[in-house]
Amino acid sequence: MMPMGTCPRCGTPHSAGLMVCGACGAPIAPTAPVAAGSPGSAEAPIPTVPPPPGPPPGATLSTPTSPPPPGAGTKKRSNTLVIGALVGVAALVGIGLALTRGDDSKTTGSTTLNSTQTTATTLPAATSSTYPEGTLDPSVLGQGEVLLEPVNAPMAEPFMPTVGSGQEAVPSVSLPSVPIPSTTAPLPAGQVALPQVAGREPGLYGGTRNAAACDPQAMITFLEQHPDKAAAWAGVQGIAAGDIRTYIEDLTPVVLTRDTRVTNHGFRNGQAFAHPSVLQAGHAVLVDRWGVPRAKCSCGNPLSPPVPLTTPPVYVGPRWPTFDPTVIIVIIATDPVDEGFILVDLTTGVLIVRPVGADPGTTDLATGDVRITLRWADTADIDLSVTDPTGETVGYGNRSVSSGGTLDVDANAPCDSATATPAENIIWADTAPMAVT
Question: Which of residues 168 and 303 earns the better pLDDT score?
């Protein structure tokens, strides 16, 4: 059996020889363990989050209850939709069909008890600014200091050149409200509780439809060509270096829409070194199945959940105009995301669905009042069709009907561009027709 140990800060098990805890980012010394964080920390304790696979452990603080789908508790409409899958190739396995009603709408609110919400906001577009190389230098941080990281500001001692796509920019579209749990726990003067938001929350992240802001394959290629950095990168996430490809291919590229507290990791003297940071909204990141940020695309640095400070935080580095220490969020794990992350399209402001892992051959999906999605794991051409209550059928032969139904995605047609992770999607963007009873 492989020798194991536990993190002296958070207690997460790890394999022998790791330099940094993959769950909380704390350094792991081979000698006497460091005492766990003292009570009365400057920030509320952060629930630990494991790397996939495996579900996250229980949170050390109360975590936000997963809200029911927007519109829960309201009377259901009597919708009648007849769904047909016309199979082009006979023997197929792994076919999944999902139907949602109303839970993709960005105008509905949450019914979570004992919670507050950030209001829907429209953020100013970022202006093009140039920072000199090494503007963000975490090596100068002192005790209790947190590094502010604006978009497009280069890091000192990064893991790799950028694997992002184009310039990062603060979202300029209207953002949906996001439930944030309230806290009644008293904190000493000068200390601020960090709002915790579930990583699977619809509308928490942004992106541009069918245009990922990050290139995971470029990150994998670089790490495979630099074994020393691969070992350090894998150590942060608590995985073996040989598992990097599988791990990163399961991450999903998204864009932060809120200023977010993380533990960032640079590369110095052959090792990863952890430092507390706040990433400005607009950063492109890779998130795991629980929606927890795991990599920063502009420099390839591995990310992990933030570690609570034991003194009031002091924010250092370039401040952006909208920075406010009272609205920084921490993203935590609750339930894993299966069907895909619901993102805000940063071009149009509408909600889209991005499949977990975002294989380059898989398209993002539109959302609406009613959405029917057919997924399968094969290059076969399967066609989804839906008949509405008036008897009209929408499908590949009739891409839209008078009731508003539209074939959003027709997968694996033509066959020479087929993907092994296809999905067909039919939506009623506005109010779907009601059945006649």
Answer: 303
Measure CA 280 to chain center.
Answer: 15
Determine the Cα–Cα distance for residues 399 and 361; give it in Å rounded to an integer.
22
Phi, psi (degrees; rounded to nearest 5) at 220: -60, -45
Of the candidates 204, 250, 181, the one whose C-alpha atom is nearest the C-alpha of residue 421 is: 250
pLDDT value of residue 192: 63
Judged by DSSP in three states, 20 sits in strand
Flag the least confident range among 43-52, 90-99, 297-306, 307-316.
Answer: 43-52
**Percent helix / strand / coil, the chain, rounded to 5:** 10, 30, 65
Residue 225's H or E segment, with its range, is: helix 216-225
- The alpha carbon dihedral of 289, 352, 72, 82 has a sign of negative
DSSP state of 289: T
Tokens encoding 364: 């993002």
Q: Quick check: helix, strand or coil at residue 236?
A: helix
Cα 59 from Cα 283, distance rounded (Å)? 26
Tell me, rounded to whole angstroms, the distance of Cα 427 from its chain centroid.
Answer: 24
3-state secondary structure of 139: helix
Smallest Cα–Cα separation from 196: which of 55, 310, 291?
Answer: 291
Distance separating alpha carbons of residues 202 and 69, to the nearest angstrom: 10
Cis ω for the linkage preceding 55 (within 30 of 0): no
Domain boundaries, the chain: 6-32+47-59+111-332
- Torsion, CA 384, CA 386, CA 392, CA 398, rounded to 10: -20
Would the pTM count as exceeding 0.85? no
Q: Which amino acid is at 55?
A: P
Residue 39 is encoded by which pair of tokens? 């009570």
Token readout for 52 is: 């996939």
Whole-number Å distance between alpha carbons of 4 and 21: 12
146 beta partners: 315
Q: Which of 128, 292, 297 has its CA nearest to residue 212?
A: 297
Question: Are 24 and 12 a contacting pair, CB within 8 Å?
Answer: yes
Q: Kindly list the distances between the CA atom of residue 198 and the CA atoms of 52, 66, 180, 290, in Å, as whole numbers in the listed order.
A: 16, 8, 9, 8
Torsion sign (Cα): 156, 161, 163, 165: positive
Find, among 277, 279, 254, 261, the residue nearest to 203 by Cα: 254
User: Residue type at 93?
Assistant: V
- Which H/E stretch holds residue 244? helix 244-249
What is the number of alpha carbons within 13 Å of residue 89 lying toward its C-beta?
12
- Per-residue pLDDT reduced to its tens digit, 236-280: 999 999 999 999 999 999 999 999 999 999 999 999 999 999 999
